[in-house]
Amino acid sequence: MLYIYFCNLMPPKKDHIKNLVRGIPDKPGVYQYFNKEGTIIYVGKAKSLKKRVASYFNKNNDHNGKTKILVNRIADIKIIIVETELDALLLENNLIKKYQPRYNVMLKDDKTYPWICIKDEDFPRIFTTRKFIRDGSQYFGPYANGKMMHTLLELIHHLYKLRTCNLKLNQENIEAKKFKICLEYHIHNCLGPCEAFQTKVDYDQTIAQIKEILKGNIHSVIAHLEKMMKDFAERFEFEKAHVVKEKIELLERYKSKSIIVNPNIHNVDVYSLVSENDFTFVNFFKVVNGAIIQAHTLELKKKLDETPEELLALAIIELRERFHSDSKEIIVPFKMSMDLPDVHFTVPKIGDKKHLLALSEKNVRYYMKEKIDQYEKLDPQLKTDKLLALMQKDLRLSEPPKHIECFDNSNIQGDYPVAAMTVFKDAKPSKKDYRHFNIKTVTGPNDFASMEEIIFRRYKRMLDEKQEMPQLIVIDGGKGQLSAAIKSLKKLKLMGKIGIIGIAKRLEEIFYPGDKIPMYLDKKSETLRIIQQLRDEAHRFGITHHRNQRSKGTIKTELTQIAGIGTTISDKLLAHFKSVKKIKLATLEELEEIIGKAKAKLVSDYFNQDKDK
Question: Average pLDDT of the chain?
């Protein structure tokens, strides 16, 4: 492997980066980005280092926000040239785990999983361990599912009598009779190899069968045992034949629980992937003879806008290395461009392999739901961010709608026209920000002109006061009301800077500016639920205000019908007596204390005249 380094200890300029990029060769390898402090902030791999690195600094490349921040912080570049894409993948994986760069995908799972070890010794012991020691012993696993590992060990101990002591049972020590049988022999858990009661050949045959079971080749062990049973039966050794029969039955029961699909599917890896916001989960199955012998779900935390293929490629390398997989076939949910020597990728459409992939996807979705539920309990803001991201996607917005304002008009045949505005922040009502509007410039029942007025007044004031604008405006109404609101936004030069939609109540249609065809959201979607809640709140808030205005208008009209009594005197009387009924019952002296002798006599005479009638 050839290493090429580009380093600069002084704070580099843009020309320095350009010169580095020009000198990068068109070969496979790994690139590392450093900040001005000399810390690795990103590691990536590429089939062509020159093209990949240059793409970050191409002015025509439309990077997302996080990638732009990364590029602005790159002060130096180092590359490592390798021979193959596989070398690049492995090296990238190792460097990410070693340095944990800030902008790389974070592998959330870094546990040490247990193995089943068959010790390299005479009369090998079998035990679990978390330490992988390269001493010639054979290791099976690692097992992410401890229950599966213990089930296998329990099966093995039911089938075979193995020694558990740590004595050095070589031929010389056994012949010298250095050891004596222990309690394990007397309770029939061991066949006594320490005193040569069990031969090395017999013990090694047992170990060979155990290895096949651990590899998932249960059918070959069953076939071997069936032959043994027949041989014992032919020699009339029925007790031994019965013991072997019990072993076969135990293996068959275990096999019936393990078989998932066609047993001819041999030594295959299955991967499935799901993502939600910045979380990605990859499920892995190791399948031998149709049985899943290993299963694990890996969690990755996205930092940049990585594609599903890039994330799956990283997970495949990590999991194959972790579980020491040498499968020649990998089942994946979509086509992969990565090239692994002597390995082919399969994207199944039908059949047993498709069934395996579907089972993997079912597992990974369940795991993701459980994990995200846990995270949301620990951090409620995560649930909010998830909902806002969903709304951004569903409503085709440029950013999450953290601040939404919704408008609704209310009037009866043009009388007392009012409007209401409700506000949601972080997908929850912000009632302190609700506002009422009395329509000032429109006469008669004209909803479109009323909407145009309140939108102009609202956002003209926000501009004047330099307030932070919402990310989304919701108009209660169809194309007409939406068009009226858009006129005001255009006058204020805000069109295109704030997202705006209309919602028509009859069919819950969502209208967009300049689009004649409405959009229909899923009736069960969270996005539609929030929009409906906004709209219903605006309607309720507006109706309440409109009812109050009508009530005040009716009362004031009755008082101002009195000759010589205007709105000022009406307001004084209502402020003190609270209702017209109490004003009617008030004495002349009580009225005089509030509005004077002359006005009090007018009011008293008016209501006394009504009594006389």
Answer: 81
